[in-house]
Amino acid sequence: MDDPSDRTRRLTEAAAGALAAMRAGEDDGALDRVAAAVRSAPDSHVDARELMLLLFHECSAMVAALGSGGTTPVKMQVYDDDGHEVPIDEADPPVRTAVRTLLAQVHGDTDAAKAQIEIALTNAAPDEMATLMVQALRWTLRLSDECVNRGLPVPTWIREP
User: Helices in 4-161 by DSSP H: which ranges?
Assistant: First the structure.
């Protein structure tokens, strides 16, 4: 079993590499990076969960920063393939999971966030898990860009590959 600090370092490096690939327009390369990191782990299920929770945790921190520490609401919107806004409950399952996980993290309910990811890992098809991971990576990029534009703090591993 991995030492928790080794796991965190390895997953942070994998996430940073995936974010760099996405910045370069290589979404498939980003997924390949995280998949390789998770597959090589002694407990790939735990690593997949922890990697997604890491990304959603950072997204949550950036949402809080963008919302002035909770004094300004941040609106979350979900769109269908045609660009029309849809209620969260009508979104595709991986997007619903992503929104629910982020909302749980934003509200400080790490257990609920873990439960959402665990349900997805247990029940989702591989392509749905890939969509969930891409969503987490995209949100991390978009939120970090917005934070940087506003002069708000962003962890170095997110900003610089």
Answer: 4-23, 27-39, 44-66, 93-106, 110-123, 126-149, 156-159
8 Å CB contact between 52 and 101: yes
pLDDT digits (tens, 9 = 90+) for 138-148: 999 999 999 99
3 state DSSP class of 85: strand
Model confidence pLDDT, tens digit, residues 9-39: 989 999 999 999 999 988 888 888 888 888 8
* CA distances in angstroms from 21 to 51, 134, 140, listed in the order given: 16, 12, 13
Contact yes or no for 154/147 (Cβ under 8 A): yes
**Cβ count near 120 (within 10 Å):** 25
Summarised one tens digit per residue, pLDDT across range 58-97 is: 999 999 898 876 566 677 777 777 878 888 888 888 888 8
